[in-house]
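pinging the channel bc i need a second pair of eyes. not urgent but kinda urgent?? the chain im working w is below, pasted from the shared doc
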Amino acid sequence: MSDHILDQTALAALTGRTVFEVESALKGWTLPSLSYREVATDEGRSIAAEVDRVIREEPLRRSGDDDPAVWVRGWNEVAARLRDQRLTEETLRPQYFRGEPICRYADRYIRPTRPDFEYDVGLALRRIHFDEFAGGYHSVVEFGCGTGINLFLLAARFPDVTLIGADWAPACTEILSDMARQTSRPISGKVFNMLTASGWDGEEIDGKTLCLTVHAMEQLGTKWKPFADFLAARRPGLCLHIEPIYEFYDASPFDALAQRYHVKRGYLLGFQPYVLDLCRAGRGELVASRRVRFGGLYHEAYSVLAWRPLG
């Protein structure tokens, strides 16, 4: 079976942007060869059956179960590994990108020809999202910043923007301190617990600030209200969430598997409808609510919700 390429045209279709806008967002970055093979019907059924088995039988860790300890330990390991290393897109790669042999793409399974396929597509999608939404702000605050990979991408694209990373793992401040030194960019870290909206008070946030989450609110499950209230109280210029959003899935059997996985893992639920209700009530302005039909084997984690609190 011949290979296919997920190119700029395909990325434009995924993100709702034009090919020109995608090319502009990726300018200066060499797009890796994103080749994949289509999955035959019988193989697709076998993949779906195995996904179903994993969801039914495997003891998958749920978000919120001892999460602070899990992530503090994980980011401590990353900080230790990064000491005395040059920070790059590869060295900042989070541990949970292990190289999926199968991915979800445009309502079907595909088989990537390289183990880095999902990570590289994710880097491209983030660059496209950032280019669309992050321009014009004097500061960006990323909550749940982890290794700082998103701040690293933003520092390269928007060199004059002040960047703040907030995470409940103190080791992240060490990583960001190294990043500021190596890139000569204004980057700093804060300790902040998204579940309780405690720690850093967010006093630097104002109407010229973009507040960002990437694969971070997924860990809040249904316990996102303190963080939502925190954002509303500080009224940033824009809130941009690149997350798995349960409410975007449809009634197809393909999406039903992703929904079941999402629920079993305890991922984000109810936040997107809450934002829509805020906006309908005049307490927020909806900028974008958009599904991106790409992900790893089990679910899609690159969809977009962008809004601004109005008080």
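so The mean pLDDT is 93. and The longest strand covers residues 187-193. — does that match what u expected or am i reading it wrong
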